[in-house]
Amino acid sequence: MCNLVTKNNFVRCLLSGVLLASGAAGGADIHSVPGTLLVTQFVSAPFPHPARAAGHQYQKEFFSAAEHYTNSDAALFIPKYFRATDKIDFVVHFHGWRNTVAGTLEQFNLLQQFCDSGKNAILIVPEGPRLAPDSFGGKLEDTNGFKNFMAEAVEKLRASGVLATTNFAIGNIILSGHSGGYHVMAAILDHGGMPEKIKEAWLFDALYGNTENFVAWQKNQNGRLLDIYTDHGGTKDETQNLMASYKTNGVPFVSREETNRAAADLGAQKITFIHTDLTHNEVIFQRGEFATFLKTSCLSDP
Domain map of the chain by residue range? Predict the structure, then answer.
């Protein structure tokens, strides 16, 4: 009934269509973080998608649909301390270029950081363009695509048997993205179908464009926008332009250096820009920024 295999450092158990791994983790030891990791295929996952049915050309490289745009996995992590209530909060993170779900969980130590925050929520990481230089979010960029995805996530969790209750609704949602993950986030904020549920948006060196979508969502929903940017990741100009626009229009925001930032100060600010001396890939994990954002978020403790 259950075949255990090791693939991409995930221990997977095929059970009624759901891939189940307990105690999985990111970072150096993927098995060390206490919790349960569900890795399962979603009908509403970003891919496959008609727009990538013929693959994707980037500069002189071609990325075939078969190799890069057919994986429909999404990972759902429930920390061991999680307490199910009538409303469950979610953090949905989107990986960047040339990465995968497995790669981003390990490389950026997301599961350990999630547990370190102590927040009572579930982490979801969908597979985007697999190992491809592409920011397209597939079905999650379609109208109401994110709403469909979250509805399916709820059903997967209910059917998995890992929660103490199946009678729950979606509570608050936080969107998080690194690098090219900005594009799908912008589409979700604009026409994903759940703007009132999304309370925060985090950009980890990811503000390359679609800035008007982030601005409109923040204004309309009074959401919390966190943008950490580097000198050489390609996001500095767009971030500084947004800060200049906010200043011209009298929109309050905070701008500070990452090394001088007190974590406790983040929670009170609706719009915060953080300049860092870290590199493009270090901004999520090197100083525990993902955990810091979580600790100062709207999410509740267990």
Answer: 15-295
Give the burial string for 276-287 (b: 16+ CB within 10 Å, else e). bebebbbbbbeb
Is the distance from CB of 271 to CB of 218 less than 8 angstroms? yes
Going by the DSSP 8-state scheme, the letter that residue 50 receives in this structure is: G
- Do 40 and 74 contact (CB within 8 A), yes or no? yes
In degrees, rounded to 5, the angle at the alpha carbon of residue 134 between the alpha carbons of residues 130 and 137 is 80
Q: Give me the pLDDT at residue 259, please.
A: 79
Q: 85: Cβ–Cβ under 8 A, 6 or more apart, which residues?
A: 120, 165, 168
Parallel, antiparallel, or unpaired for β 73-79 and 121-126?
Answer: antiparallel
Q: What is the mean pLDDT of residues 62-88?
A: 97
CA distance 278 to 290: 14
Backbone angles phi, psi at 187, to 5 degrees: -65, -40
pLDDT level of residue 265 (50, 70, 90 thresholds): low
The phi and psi torsions of 58 (rounded to 5 degrees) equal -130, 115
- What local confidence, expressed as pLDDT, does residue 4 receive? 24
Q: Which CATH number fits domain 15-295: 3.40.50.1820, 3.40.50.10490, 3.90.1150.10, 3.40.630.30?
A: 3.40.50.1820
Angle at 19 between CA 13 and CA 21, to 5 degrees: 65
> Which residues, 6 or more positions from 227, have their beta carbon under 8 angstroms from its beta carbon?
202, 203, 206, 207, 239, 242, 272, 273, 274
